[in-house]
Write a structure and sequence with these properties.
Structural class: mainly alpha
Number of strands: 3
Radius of gyration: 22 Å
Largest sheet: 3 strands, antiparallel
Number of helices: 8
Mean pLDDT: 89
Helix content: 55-70%
Order of helices and strands: HEHHEEHHHHH
Length: 168
């Protein structure tokens, strides 16, 4: 058992290290077929060796900023910056669905049975969920998009919050 809060970080497996090396060899827009990856590590990256490929993709993303996406039953493709941006474009909807689901869970908690500190926590979570839900709405995104176009840069949080003050 670990003493205190220390633990050993496991080393990367040989297969993961090999896949990282292989993925780093490829340029943006290139497709690497599963068959080639299977032959390279002598295991099936779609089945028992999937975790090695997942770890390699995460490592290459962190180390080099290279994003790889699945091409169903064919292989994986290294995305160009434009493709990576478009692949992330569903983020607001994904966040909104998650927040809506979690807010329903919070709303089902019996507020009357909470102590004062927990009630504050409940109110915080409900407020946060409402705020994120509001920010994720299409109308809000349009206003925010226009503000970003005007500034031609990412908005600082204070300026983004000021943009939302006009909404009721």
């Amino acid at each position: 058992m670990n003493e205190g809060n220390t633990f050993t970080i496991p080393e990367r497996s040989i297969q993961t290290t090999m896949l990282i090396t292989k993925l780093k060899e490829h340029e943006e827009g290139e497709l690497v077929k599963y068959a080639a990856l299977n032959d390279y590590i002598k295991e099936n990256v779609q089945k028992e060796a999937y975790s090695y490929l997942r770890s390699a993709r995460n490592a290459v993303l962190i180390e080099d900023g290279a994003r790889w996406e699945t091409v169903l039953n064919v292989g994986i493709k290294r995305l160009t910056p434009s493709e990576a941006l478009h692949a992330s474009s569903n983020l607001p909807r994904k966040i909104q669905r998650t927040v809506r689901r979690e807010k329903k869970k919070v709303q089902r908690i019996d507020f009357s049975r909470l102590d004062k500190e927990d009630r504050n926590g409940w109110n915080l979570l409900s407020t946060y969920a409402s705020l994120v839900s509001h920010i994720s709405k299409k109308k809000t995104q349009k206003v925010l998009t226009e503000k970003i176009r005007t500034n031609n840069a990412e908005l600082p949080p204070g300026m983004a919050i000021d943009t939302f003050k006009s909404f009721k």
